[in-house]
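Continuing the batch. This is chain 6 of the set; chains 1 through 5 are on the previous pages. Same settings as before, nothing changed between runs. Recording input and output for traceability.
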Amino acid sequence: MTGLYIHIPFCRKVCPYCDFYRRVGEVWDEYISVLCKEMVEYKGEVVDTVYFGGGTPSLLKHHQLYTLFESIYENFKLSPKEITIEANPEDVNGKNLEFWKTLGINRISIGVQTFNERGLKVLGRWHTPEECIKAVEKSLSAGFNTNVDIIFAYPEQTLKDFEKDLEMILRLKPQHISVYSLQIEEKTLYHYWYKRGKLNVPEDIREFYVLRDSILEDGGYIRYEISNFAKRGYECAHNMKYWKREKYLGLGPSAASFIPEKKLRFRNLPSLNLYMKNHPPPREYEILDDYKERIEKIYLGLRIGLKKEELGDMGKVGEFLEEFEGNIRVKKEFLHIFDKIVEELI
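Output for chain 6:
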């Protein structure tokens, strides 16, 4: 089974911390046509998960989303167990929810980021805490498998602020929670401000990880990946394909694909202009040798847990690892140095 990712690189505005490929403005009808053209390349693939990411896929007008689904059904053998759309809180309304459901979308990932009013302003978000709460409640009431996206360790955030965010999530009771530490990426406004000493971000984020895992696991959620928690049985099936190195195809500028049987990774170049003017779009290709495969298996696999035999000698980093449900994973108090632990293992 193949996972299908569809990139919608349009946003109402650009968040200062975001480094995903995106542009400001409404979704073009012409862009939808080119996406449908790219689907033809993979005609006949058996697809069981579809993920609309961005950008802001909830900006898609109804006729645009309908056109995409027509093309999906025409080109793929769709056997869906999970179809996800990423949404901003202000787009989670009765009209959209009803339409999304008629198309077969059964999972919504809501970009809340924080329920703290000051935090939302710091992160450049334009919705209110009340809109965030109502969006989650509406999605759940409409019967959608609902994920809430949260960022922690953003500028000026305290542990108490983060604790309140986590407590609010537990009150709302979504099936899935993604809780990411802020990464200051190059070529973002945050990076520009940080280099000039204008961002006061928490330096030691170890306590944030410990607090997060303790509260959410006590609240009945399982950490099944570094940044993802779910009620049992509600793990994100599409994202698991990435971590398990299963087959997936990416459509749109910057979207990546992986063909495991060919040890092949490729990515559409991050240029909307090139994507619109060329078919097939220009791509970067990489064939993985044995060494790169081992790196990937450890780096991606350890995010969700690996068997002891897959890890091999754990050497000096053994003290940072623990056994969980038959697999080895990084202890919560060391998640902030995950990359260093992987480097040592490799």
